[in-house]
Specification:
heterodimer; A: FAD/NAD(P)-binding domain; FAD/NAD(P)-binding domain; 24 helices; 24 strands; 31% helix; B: alpha/beta; Rossmann fold; eight-stranded mixed sheet; three-stranded antiparallel sheet; 12 helices; 30% helix
């Protein structure tokens, strides 16, 4: 194998699995250390910089970081149930314990002088608000439009209050609007042509995927009064238009919206609430923890049942018929749901909530506006720049590439903001800024590092819940209470500090084997070089996860190379402590995405580096 | 030195041996030796060898004297018996323990000061007696604990870290062990576990006095230019006579070497040592030839390593003395004290 080039920003970035997996590339271990140090406001700001909504995401994020977390792999065969660090809930610890004054002091201020460029953001969800946050402090005049009276979009209208209190949304949306962003609520944009005619320098579309998919089955029309589209129903609940539901409720669908629907129904008078899904329980789209939360509240999830018809007497819904199916897999492993032949099952109910998916809808973008759409009705948008076929119109969030989640919307917002900033500076937007990276030794003494390298054996801490009799009575009582500071500290200590990298210097190595002997995870091998596939088999412990890189040195004195499998490294630094010559060092790798501003523009990078 | 305990977490694929133990189960406390010390590599090699041989940790006694090397039994086989003896007196304590309980595996760990200076007499006699043991001498040529004075194994003409030239002739422990009658003599290098681990395994299986001199560079005081016990010097002058495959009675023979390149030695217990010749002229069963070879090559500044001598028909101290097969702690009172009639018979026989 070729020697690893650790100067490439991606190499060490990939080692920080959580940060690599996060669409917004939040420096996770960095803020977790700050939480452990009790510096909650600083931890909040590290988050805010990257993901804009730490308090909201700390409750609702889809957490792509957690399945990626190295701790989960490290605990394999070491703990009864291997679990990642509770990254998401630690984020909430930062949000819950920060001081508002300190946080505000660390945020950019509204621009004193405007630069004369006007930007319209359509829809006030996370994508648009991110664009506004990134661009307003730079002097752009940003106006955000939304059909709802308050900003927040999906976060406000569809995530139930028992998961996300309104104060948290108000606070974090407020931080953005206070940067001199103009918000026009209660105004639905009905025509893209009219917007374009208004002469905005750039337009950002962050309108989400606002249409809930319907289920057209016999009886749907006749019993319509008691059949609701999940996301519409959730927003009606959120606005207080709906405050009760029938005693027996069926929720159709297996995604996170279905979970929000069933748990909301349980709080609005639904005594007998069931979730019924076509697929198997395991294949449901909802996040595992959201399924668990529903089950925990006593909501049964019935699987392998395909809806057949809505039954009613004179328009009064009485129940639904379902066909029982089982999963069969063909040679390619593709799943097919095959009827079992059993008689259809009748399930009685008073209300049905349909949560079987969301769709994009752009009825307000006229063909004459010139924005190209593909055969599925989605706008043609560049994956990287987010630019549409009309040069000054950009798309982000669910509106760009279909339904995802908040953290993706934020990531899109940052990228679109970079594009808009470069575009309005007359630059090539395809030329993207590289991230800022920094590598600093953490050595403070022979056995002293500026991070805590003692690895705890603690299992993942459980987030405490409010008493069920209290939470099930009101839709506004938050279920999860968040970690208290001491549990937050304990959980933070489970983080392996994967951003503190093992950096190897060939020239200093005397091949004494001290690092090989001490490494608790058998990560390090000194051996003859070879092809990657061969090398992976020959290591001290086989390196079977090919998505985890091998760190290969240049040739050593004996002609061998040092090979380190990054997979389950604890970042405990014992290799560096045992190294007599300092050939191993623990160096903190900090990667920050380059957001909109002078640093993203041509020639701005050197300036950026100097400042860092 | 490390102050953190090594985390208990291990690699998910870490295998277990037939006893159900992982290699990590054979570890001891965290080492307090200097970072990069060769002794730590030897500890790791002992751990590896014991794990591979499915040795029950509670059937091992680790004995040592005084010095950096003699601290190491604390850093491996944490569940075995240990005895840290007086300086240079490990061999006599080991001999006594072996007499009392012949069923344990005796691991004597010593250094060049402990064995070649203060304990030279004990060293000679334990070899003479053919005590069934593995005697590992962690040889770095300096007194590390007292800041790097030459030890008795330092080569004449080698330089100390401060530039002083050693004028005394070295004690060659390998030749001494051969002369004194050790039936298994080897030399290894802490920086080459591929060679060292099989040597330790073969020594464990050997019935009789097995001696391994392991060159173990002292990174703090003896790893500079002019030293003959540094990583660089040993790597440059390593004259390995053979590579050994250690095969237990149940292992299948998997590697086939061409005829003439391999010598097979079957030990008492049926284990097989296959010596892959690196030097075609070397015969590890020829004691006098071995002594000549070692002397010749050492005179040229080379460090001869490998399995230097093995006596296939070795016998240990218990055989020589015709002692009882059962360890003393398993004999009951009537066996240990057969009564006055038996005593009278013994006395009568001596009259």
């Amino acid at each position: 194998m070729q020697p690893t080039d650790i100067r490439k920003p991606d190499y060490f970035h990939k080692v920080v699995d959580c940060q690599w997996a996060c669409p917004a590339h939040t420096p996770v271990p960095e803020y977790i250390r700050l939480i452990a140090a009790g510096r909650y406001s600083d931890a909040y700001l590290v988050n805010w910089q990257s993901n804009v909504f730490p308090g909201i995401l700390g409750r609702t994020c889809d957490r792509p970081c957690e399945p990626a977390c190295r701790r989960g792999r490290v605990e394999e065969k070491n703990a009864a149930t291997p679990e990642p660090v509770a990254i998401c809930r630690l984020k909430r610890v930062a949000a819950d314990n920060k001081t508002q004054a300190a946080v505000r002091a660390g945020m950019p201020k509204a621009a004193q002088k405007k630069n004369g460029k006007r930007i319209a953001c359509i829809g006030a969800g996370p994508a648009s608000l991110t664009v506004a946050r990134d661009l307003a402090p730079l002097g752009y005049s940003v106006t955000v439009f939304d059909a709802d009276p308050k900003a927040g979009g999906f976060m406000r209208t569809q995530v139930p209050r028992f998961r996300l209190p309104e104060e948290v949304i108000d606070e974090e949306v407020g931080y953005i609007l206070d940067l001199g962003v103009e918000f026009i609520g209660g105004k639905r944009i009905e025509s893209m042509q009219a917007v374009l005619a208004d002469g905005w320098d750039a337009v950002f579309v962050g309108t989400g995927a606002p249409r809930g998919r319907d289920l057209v089955l016999p009886g749907r029309q006749e019993a319509a009064k008691h059949i609701h589209i999940g996301i519409d129903w959730l927003s009606s609940v959120s606005f207080g238009h709906i405050n009760q539901v029938g005693r027996r409720v069926i929720v159709l669908g297996g995604g996170n919206t279905a979970m929000d629907c069933c748990r909301s129904a349980k709080r609005l008078g639904g005594e007998d609430v069931k979730v019924i899904v076509r697929s198997g329980y395991e294949e449901m789209k909802a996040s595992p923890w959201e399924k668990e939360d529903a089950v925990h509240e006593g909501i049964p999830i019935l699987n392998f049942m395909v809806p057949v018809s809505f039954e009613h007497t004179n328009g009064q819904l009485t129940g639904m018929f379902f066909e029982k199916v089982s999963a069969e897999f063909d040679a390619k492993g593709k799943r097919r749901l095959v009827p079992t032949g059993e008689p259809h099952v009748f399930v009685e109910c008073d209300d049905v909530l349909i949560a079987v998916g969301q769709e994009n809808a752009f009825p307000w973008i006229e063909p004459a506006a010139g924005i190209e759409f593909d055969q599925w009705g989605m706008p043609v948008v560049d994956q990287v720049t987010h630019q549409s076929t009309v040069k000054n119109v950009f798309f982000g969030g669910d509106a760009a590439f279909g339904p995802k989640n908040i953290i993706w919307a934020v990531a899109h917002g940052h990228e679109a903001a970079v594009s808009i900033d470069k575009f309005l500076s007359g630059e090539n937007i395809a030329d993207r800024p590289s991230p800022l990276t920094n590598l600093i030794s953490q050595k403070m003494g022979i056995h002293e590092w500026s991070y805590d390298n003692d690895i705890t054996a603690d299992a993942r801490n459980k987030v405490p819940w409010a008493a069920a009799e209290k939470t099930l009575k009101s839709i506004k009582v938050e279920v999860e209470l968040g970690f208290d500071p001491s549990t937050g500290f304990k959980e933070a200590q489970r983080c392996l500090n994967c951003d503190v990298q093992t950096v190897f210097t060939t020239e200093a190595c005397i091949e004494c084997d001290a690092c090989v002997d001490i490494c608790p995870m058998d990560c390090i091998t000194f051996t003859a070089n070879g092809e990657e596939a061969d090398l992976r088999q020959r290591l001290h412990a086989p390196a079977l996860r090919t998505d985890q890189d091998l760190y290969v040195s240049t040739d050593l004195k004996t002609g061998r190379v040092m090979v380190k499998d990054e997979d389950v490294c604890l970042h405990c630094g014992l290799c560096a402590e045992r190294c007599p010559t300092g050939a191993w060092d623990m160096q903190k790798f900090l990667l920050q995405m380059t957001h909109a501003g002078p640093q993203c523009r041509d020639g701005g990078k050197d300036q950026h580096r100097k400042a860092a | 030195m490390t102050y953190l305990a090594k985390p208990k977490l291990h690699h998910p694929t870490l295998p277990t041996n037939t006893l159900g133990y992982t290699r990590r189960d054979y570890e001891g406390k965290i080492s307090t030796l200097c970072a990069g010390c060769g002794h730590d590599s030897i500890s790791a090699a002992i751990i590896q060898a014991c794990w591979e041989m499915d040795i029950e940790p509670h059937r091992v006694a680790k004995l040592s004297g005084i010095g950096c090397s003699s601290k190491t039994p604390d850093y491996f086989l944490g569940n075995s018996h240990g005895f840290n003896t007086v300086h240079g007196r490990m061999p006599s304590v080991l001999t006594g323990a072996n007499l009392a309980n012949r069923d344990l595996l005796y691991l004597g760990v010593s250094g060049d000061g402990d064995s070649a200076s203060i304990g030279l007499g004990q060293f000679a006699h334990v070899m003479r007696r053919g005590v069934n043991m593995v005697y590992i001498l962690e040889n770095n040529g300096v007194y590390g604990l007292t800041k790097g004075q030459f030890s008795a194994t330092a080569d004449q003409g080698s330089k100390s870290k401060r530039g002083v030239v050693n004028s005394d002739a070295p004690v060659d422990t390998v030749s001494l062990a051969l002369i004194m009658g050790a039936s298994f003599v080897a030399r290894g290098f802490s920086g080459d576990k591929k060679q060292l681990v099989p040597l330790i395994k073969a020594a464990i299986a050997h019935q009789g006095a097995a001696f391994i001199d392991v060159i173990s560079p002292c990174v703090a005081f003896n790893n500079h230019a002019g030293s003959t016990k540094s990583y660089d010097y040993v790597r440059a002058h390593n004259e390995a006579v053979n590579r050994i495959d250690f095969i237990t009675t149940r292992d299948p023979i998997t590697v086939d070497y061409p005829e003439g390149e391999v010598v097979t030695v079957t030990q008492h217990d049926g284990t097989v040592l296959r010596l892959k010749k690196v030097n075609a002229d070397y015969d590890a069963t020829d004691k006098i030839g071995a002594m000549n070879f070692i002397q010749q090559h050492q005179a040229q500044g080379e460090v001869v390593t490998g399995l230097l001598y093995v006596n296939e028909s070795s016998a240990d101290m218990h055989t020589h003395l015709n002692t009882v097969d059962t360890p003393l702690n398993q004999l009951n009172a009537t066996q240990l004290c057969p009564g006055s009639q038996a005593l009278a018979r013994v006395n009568a026989a001596l009259r």
